[in-house]
Amino acid sequence: MNIAIFDFDGTLYKKETFPLLMKHLKYHPIYKKRYRSFFAAVLLPYLAYKCKLYKEEKMKYNMMQSYVHAFKGLTIEEVNHFFKTLAEKMIPDINTTVKGRLEQHAKDGMEIYIVSGAFTPLIEYVTKDLPVSHIIATNIPFKNGVYHSTEPITHVQGITKCQLIKKALKGKQVQWSDSISYADSYSDIPILELVGKPICVHPDDALQIVAKQKGWEILD
């Protein structure tokens, strides 16, 4: 089988999701009171990161974990509805060029994998009308139908992305040399190097340098 892997933020989706998540919580008609405790929890780690005292990966994990704590006491249905209303606002900002590639790859018989650090239900709602085979994203822990606040998340970022892709494909005969990967960030190089046809979408400066050195396709 051949697969096509798509990063989400900055690739399939034009923007970054976390600023949207923050705004959605801050101004939410029901849950906006929860924003203050979230913001207080992430302020110091973020400032430490800006002062180069905190690694980026650790900072991002802290922000995602603090964000999901805002769901304390909420049911699966309530959390899903929270993400559904945000997803409806995000769909117009899907990258149409990348979306067209995704749909064509699916027509060609490729398995489509979305890999993202964003929360799984958000990615599911945004991509619900796309021919996606599998989503690898940050799951929200629930227990007895309610958010399980004592269970830590597994934030899908960095090398974890590659590990989870390989885990999802364990036992399957993947033709890696004929497979394709789309990403926008230098941190996603391990995903791009998994396949024979890496494609960089509006790459950041560091990735652009690597892409030009290696002769990878660049979508601007």
UniProtKB/TrEMBL annotation:
Keyword terms: Hydrolase, Magnesium, Metal-binding
Domain of life, source organism: Bacteria
Record family assignment: Belongs to the HAD-like hydrolase superfamily. SerB family.
Keyword NAD recorded: no
Pfam families the record matches: HAD
TM helices/strands, residue ranges: none
Keyword Metal-binding part of the UniProt annotation: yes
Protein name: HAD-IB family hydrolase
UniProt xrefs under InterPro entries: HAD-like_SerB (IPR050582), HAD-like_sf (IPR036412), HAD_hydro_SerB1 (IPR006385), HAD_sf (IPR023214)
Annotated GO MF terms: hydrolase activity; metal ion binding
